[in-house]
Amino acid sequence: MADTAIFDVDGTLVDTNYQHALAWARAFARFDVVRPLWRIHRGIGMGGDTFVPAVAGDDVEREHGDDLRAAWAEEFGALIDECRPFEGAHELLQEVADRGFTVVLASSGKKDQVERFLDLVDGRSIATAWTTSEDAEKSKPAPDIVQAALARVDASSGVMVGDSTWDVVAASKLDVPTIAVRTGGFSVDELTEAGAVSVFDSLVELRERLDETPLAKPSR
To answer: Which contiguous run of DSSP H or E holds residue 178?
Structure first.
């Protein structure tokens, strides 16, 4: 039983993953680094510090890492207005809060991006706290951002809701179970093999079946 619900933002509450993939492809292209979009997509959910070496290799990280991340920020900034909340995002957050859970939004995105996405889901009216890239030394799959989210509300135990295998891996390092949704484009098998306790096709389905999950009732 948990008392806190930790929601990933990008790809879970807001439909951003394919914009992120395109932004990274365009950033790589600036430095004549070519990676197929499917390969880039498989890394979405990692933070930029781990994404570049994982997708493009250590040599690219050494030569262009910081410049690539700056280029990605510019490219994603040009696409951010295309990002929309997933159906049922606000309603799910409200339902979980109404059940008595403390709601924390755990994002490792840049502050201005996180604040925009908070507005898209009207998260400020529900969440007790939220995080940004400024709150973690290392990004997912390291557990730092999940730990920061728990610390923000002094939680005794939490449940993660995420869309990528990287969410699941990060949370599992703190023994935090993850409920996964397929909004990030990962398969049921990929998410369950990473350790997700349950997988749903959408936020709407998750809300309808909350009683089957660790978010049925808080521990307090």
So the answer is: strand 178-181
Query: For 2, what's the count of Cα atoms within 13 Å in the CB-facing half-sphere?
Result: 26
Reference 56, options 16, 29, 77, 18; nearest CA is 29
Asked whether the CA dihedral 204, 207, 212, 213 is positive or negative, the reply is positive
Query: What confidence tens digit (pLDDT) does each residue in 102-113 have?
Result: 999 999 888 999
Written as six digits, the tokens of 29 are: 């292209």
Nearest partner of 157 among 147, 166, 167, 165, judged by Cα: 147
| Separation of alpha carbons 169 and 102, rounded Å | 22
State the pTM of this model.
Answer: 0.93
Residues 45, 151: Cα–Cα separation, whole Å: 21
